[in-house]
Task: inverse folding
DNA sequence: CTGAAAGCGCTTACAG
DNA sequence: CTGAAAGCGCTTACAG
């Protein structure tokens, strides 16, 4: 015999009230045609008993688990907390729970993560794919968050426009020689951002690009970026493709006695947690995670409701490029962060 | 009539093979007493059909959802990605999925988050409580990750010992006057860490403490910490209670022309993502998230298996204080972070 | 307005 | 070694 739940169920409520389970179900869901008074009595009784409907029973009956999956290439990446938070909020608002899965390490791990979520019965999932991977068949609707220039994408920040926003900002500050600092030339995001910066340069401006990974391959991990020399060569602006690289640039410049922002400007991307905290505070370009998450989740949910959850299709959104927002900072401010503990 | 799944189920496999569902179930689970050959044939057929067992059916029958909850006070906090990643890994290893819930903003949000997870049918949950809250009744086993000095705690990093490790480190570098830099004097974590530092000072060493929140209340958000003056007063070491504050201190010192580490040392806590990346790299003390997560999850799972999942009890662990680890850095290194996109 | 009944997919105790 | 049957808790189409 299957194990009985320790909590109350519909049947318990029904018998203790002398009505049928159908009536209780209808009363609690508000759907049924149950008299006002009876419904009220049932709701009260259920509440007093601390009744919590069984997801398993409901899911089995309706075929809907009420859960979505979120696959991240590396939860520990500083970019993802904001995304995860936004996704969790959007999903909760839409009445769904979120199961997380980390595809850290390899494409194989990504496939396993996806399969785990399928086995857990998610109705759909949001995937931030590992670089260079294309999500093929997941046997449920999938919303992909990636660069807009990646084929098979549901929604993305407009990294190219974000790059242009940086170029505009630097142009208005009067900079002529820009050093773009990226980590990895194989990254679509970084390439889009770098391309955006270059395309936004105005007459008389020029740029060069420093890829840290290449530099470190030659000179060893953690080597200086040699920015002091770049300043001597005439670069006055250092446009990092992520706040992490911006931080590295800023501290190296300051360590070498270069006054930021008087002598050189440093900008970043992503508005990571530390960008308002450092001295001087970092000008950066932020992805609108709330909008991205809302689009991803609402498109996903709409697809599920239309097509069901067993079709392995890529979800599309009406607007798939979300503009990035320049956050120009001059002085340090407080972190938005309260101490939670 | 309830909606049929589009995918294959046990019954489909059974009829197409001319055996009973019981036999298919037994063969696939490996539990039953099914002949080797038949079991093999069934497994092959199930695989070729792409059979994925229904969690809903299984959960309803066994009373076990196979899902745990994770409640975080603020997913966007830089400390939590590592924790979430470690929890996800430990839970996956134990055969559980992880539903996340953000209790951002208020105690009410925390209660709602817990209730949402209960409604989703989690068998137990890991909670990092909001500061000052005590988790009372959650109607399922709960593992609490908090400071060791908080009552009603399952497992915690030993922040006091971590503070002593910083004091030791600074003592060995020959520092005498230590400025402890915290944000919020109401934080248990920060107080434990500060207390640990103070208790680890040796003869001839002394400390003062700067609480940023108090300073900003007087002088405005984002005001300078005035560390240059502190250097003049004779402080040579700045021991921040988090890497975020350490970063603020480091950049302010550098901006003001103070050579770190030649003139002043800066240390932090938590080994956040940027600590190896800044120049000079940050010495810090790290929580052992892997161990903490493993203890939390294994204690939780053990409790669930022993007591079931409908008792609202606080899980206890054998070892509840996990030592922190000093990471002494002298020069910058690469971030452990690969570009995922 | 209310109830009896079917059935979602699974596992397990029991019978053969 | 294999199968028939019960039942986990729910929702819904149908009957009254």
Result:
């Amino acid at each position: 015999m299957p194990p009985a739940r320790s909590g109350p169920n519909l049947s318990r409520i029904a018998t203790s009230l002398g009505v049928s389970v159908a009536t209780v179900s209808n009363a609690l869901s508000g759907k049924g045609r149950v008299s006002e008074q009876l419904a009220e009595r049932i709701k009260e009784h259920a509440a007093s008993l601390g009744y919590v409907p069984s997801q398993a029973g409901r899911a089995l009956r309706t075929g809907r688990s009420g859960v979505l999956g979120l696959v991240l290439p590396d939860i520990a990446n500083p970019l993802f907390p904001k995304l995860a938070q936004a996704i969790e909020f959007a999903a909760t608002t839409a009445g769904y729970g979120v199961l997380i899965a980390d595809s850290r390490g390899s494409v194989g791990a990504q496939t396993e993560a996806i399969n785990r979520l399928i086995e857990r019965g998610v109705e759909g999932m949001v995937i931030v794919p590992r670089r260079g991977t294309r999500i093929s068949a997941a046997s449920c609707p999938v919303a992909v968050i990636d660069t807009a220039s990646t084929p098979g994408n549901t929604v993305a920040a407009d990294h190219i426009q974000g790059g242009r926003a940086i170029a505009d900002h630097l142009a208005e500050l009067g900079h002529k020689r820009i050093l773009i600092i990226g980590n990895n030339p194989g990254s679509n995001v970084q390439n889009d951002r770098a391309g955006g910066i270059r395309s936004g340069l105005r007459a008389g401006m020029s740029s060069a690009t420093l890829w840290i990974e290449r530099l470190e391959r030659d000179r060893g991990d953690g080597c200086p970026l040699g920015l002091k020399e770049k300043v001597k060569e005439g670069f006055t602006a250092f446009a990092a493709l992520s706040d992490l690289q911006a931080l590295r640039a800023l501290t190296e410049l300051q360590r070498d006695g270069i006054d930021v922002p008087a002598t050189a400007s440093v900008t970043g991307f992503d508005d990571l947690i530390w960008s308002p905290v450092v001295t001087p505070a970092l000008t950066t370009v932020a992805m609108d995670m709330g909008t991205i998450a809302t689009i991803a989740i609402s498109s996903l949910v709409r697809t599920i409701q239309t097509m069901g959850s067993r079709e392995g299709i890529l979800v599309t959104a009406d607007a798939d490029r979300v503009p990035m927002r320049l956050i120009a900072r001059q002085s340090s401010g407080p972190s938005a962060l309260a101490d939670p503990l």
Summary: Chain A has three domains: 10-53, 67-140+289-322, 159-287. The radius of gyration of chain A is 26 Å. The longest strand of chain A covers residues 67-72. Confidence is low (pLDDT under 50) at residues 332-336 of chain A.
